[in-house]
Model the fold of this input.
Amino acid sequence: MVPGLRLDMRYFTNHNFLGVPVQGYEAPKCLLTRPAAEAMARVRERLLPLGLSLKIYDCYRPQRAVDHFVRWAKDTEDTLTKAEFYPTLDKKVLFPQGYIAERSGHSRGSTVDLTIVALPAAQEPAFDPARQVECFKPAVTRYPDNGLDMGGGFDCFHEISHTANPGVGPQQRANRALLKTLMEAQGFKSLAEEWWHYTLKDEPYPNTFFDFPVK
Done:
């Protein structure tokens, strides 16, 4: 549906806040409802003349994956990824404060986590779990991500992730604004707490949380 889309499906890998592949992700694929996919294709068409494209971190998320998130959040002894993804927080607050929830809009199939990438996209090194850098640090010190610099890493449990955070630099604010403007123009709404998170406003399954695996 979206030719040339760049995929970095983090929950299929161990480069995510759990530190392991997430239950329900059996292939590194982006599944979306047809209206959401068609809207994404229109966003990409508008980026191409600028020498840019879209890069995806997550699309449809099975309920079993959300359940895996909840189990992880409640296991306060498992802090394998704290240094990168929640360096300023005690893990025990992640679930009660809403960083992790029992339901996710991703399970309805019209929510996507994404960024913008310059073409041709730079090659990324293989993830080294022994090298964790705080997700709110400058891009030159974080895990290399070939997306545009948005001022903070994907899935960073920190205020730097807030879409309108005034603390990020002018170029990072401009990059976030470009993504937000293009996505909203095609019918998506942003999440204030996560610069990468967008949901189709007129989603076709607003009350259904699917659980079939990604494969």
About this structure: Residues 6-200 form a domain with the Muramoyl-pentapeptide Carboxypeptidase; domain 2 fold (CATH 3.30.1380.10). The first strand starts at residue 6 and ends at 7. The CA atoms of residues 151 and 170 lie 10 Å apart. The mean pLDDT is 96.
